[in-house]
Amino acid sequence: MAAETATNQNNTSRSIVIIGVLFFIFGFVTWLNSVLIPFLKTASQLNNFESYLVAFASYISYFVMAIPSAWVLKRTGFKNGMSLGLVVMAVGALIFIPAAMSRTYAMFLFGLFVQGTGLALLQSAANPYITILGPIESAAKRISIMGICNKVAGALAPIIFGAILLKNMDAIEARLEGMGAAAKAAELDELASLVITPYIIMAVILVGLSVLIYYSALPEIETDGENETLAAANKSKTSVLQFPNLLLGTLAMFLYVGVEVIAGDTVISYARDGQDIATDVAKYFTTYTLIAMIVGYLIGTVTIPKYISQQKALQISGILGIILGLCAIFTDGYVSVLCISLLGLANALVFPAIWPLALNGLGRFTKIGSSFLIMALAGGAILPLIYGYLADTFDPQSAYWIVIPSYLYIWFFAAKGHKIK
After folding, report:
1. Domain residue ranges of the chain, discontinuous segments joined by +
2. How many CA atoms lie within 13 A of 361 on its CB side?
3. Nearest C-alpha neighbor of 310 from the set 355, 347, 344
4. What do you get for the CA distance between the two ends of the chain, in Å?
5. Mean pLDDT of the chain
6. Where in the numbering of this chain does the Major facilitator superfamily (MFS) profile domain appear (predicted)?
7. CA pair distance 190, 211, nearest whole angstrom
8. Which residue has the higher pLDDT, 373 or 371?
9. How many CB atoms lie within 10 A of CB 115?
C-alpha cells in the first residue's frame, strides 16, 4: 500500500513538472506582447489604440477557439491536445517571417491569433488538468506553482526580446522624424526584420517540445465522471448554464485577465509616453510586474490552504488592486509606473483562486465549464483595447480608471459570488 502511494505521488510530481514546462512556454509567448506593442507601434507607425490590437489578436482567440478546443480535447485527450497546441503555436511563430519581410501589420496580428489558438488549446487542457490532479482544496496552491513557472518565463521574455527589439529605440525614433519617405521606409523595414531570427528559434523549440510531450508518460485524467454525492446533486442539471458560480466566475476571469494584461502590456508604453521615462529604462517595468506576480505566487504556495483560504486570498487581491490602481492614478513619475507594476502582486492569486471556485461542483460539466473560463481570457483582448482608446481620448494615466471596477467585481466574486449555487 505504501509502495502504491509512493508511486502515485511520483507520477503526480512528474506530471506537475511536465505541466510546469508548458506553463513556462505559454508564459514566455504571452508576455512577449509587452515588447511587441511598443516595437510594432514604431515599426508599423501606429497610435495607442492600433498598437493594443496586439493584445486583442492574442486574447480574442481564447473566446473564438475555447469551445472548439473542448471538442478537440474530447477526441484527443489532454496529452495529445497539449502536443497539438504547441504545433499550432509554432505555425503562428512562423507567420511572423512573411509579416516582417512585408512589414504588414495585419499579418503580424494573424500570426498572433494563430499563436493564441494554440495557447487556447494548451490552456484548455493544462488548467483543468492541474486543477483536478489533486485535492480541490489545494488546487490554488498547485496553480500557484504553475504560475511561478509562467511568470518566471514572463519576466525573462521582455528582457530577452526587449534587448533585441527595443535596443536604441529612442535613437531610432529620433532618426525617423528627420527622414524622407524612402529612407524612413527602409529604416522601418530593417527594424521589422529583427523579429525573424527569434521567431524561427521559437518555432523550432515549440515543435521539439510538442514531440517530447507526445511521447511523454503524462497520464490521462477522466473528468466526465462524478462521485455519488456530486452525481446526486447534479442529477437535475442538464446544462452548464445552471451553475451560477461558474457564470459569475467567468465574468471575474474576464475582468481579471483584462487588468492583468493591462498591468503587464501597457506599463512600458505608459512609462515612455505617459511619464517620459527613457525606453532603455521603461523596457524593464513589465519584468517588475512579473516579479511582483512571482512573489504573490510564492506567498500563495506557502499560505494556501494552511493559513488562508482560496476565497480569502481572492478578496485581499481585489482590495489590493483597488488601492494600487488609485495610487497609480493620483501619483506621477516612477511611483505611478511602479504602482502599475505592483498590480502584479494583486493579480498573482486571482487566477489560481477563480479556477477551483468556479469549477467546484461541476462534475461531468467540468470540461465545458473550463472552456467558459478559457473563453473569458478574451478579457485580455477587450480591456487593453478600451485602455488604448481611453489613452488616446484622454491620457494614458487617466485610462487606468478602467481597473477600479474590475477589482471591485473580483472582490465581490470572492466574498459572495462563488457561494451562489
Report:
1. 2-216+239-419
2. 17
3. 355
4. 38
5. 87
6. 15-421
7. 34
8. 373
9. 28
The three three-digit cell numbers of residue 56, written as one number: 486583442
Q: What gap in Å lies between CA 91 and CA 202, rounded to an integer?
A: 10
Say whether pLDDT at 6 is over 60.
no
CB count in 10 Å sphere of residue 394: 11
Question: Is the Cα dihedral 163, 392, 154, 374 positive or negative?
Answer: negative
Answer whether residue 330 shows pLDDT above 60: yes
Q: Are 213 and 86 in contact (CB under 8 A)?
A: yes
Question: Which single residue is written with the C-alpha cell 471556485?
Answer: 357
Element (H, E) at 12: helix 2-30
**How many Cβ atoms are within 10 Å of 358's Cβ, its own excluded?**
28
- Which positions ≥6 away from 267 have C-beta within 8 Å? 34, 282, 285, 286, 288, 289, 337, 340, 341
Give CA–CA dist 37/335, Å, rounded.
23
Residue count (the chain): 421
Share of the chain above pLDDT 70, in %: 90
Of 73, 70, 74, nearest in space to 82 by CA: 73
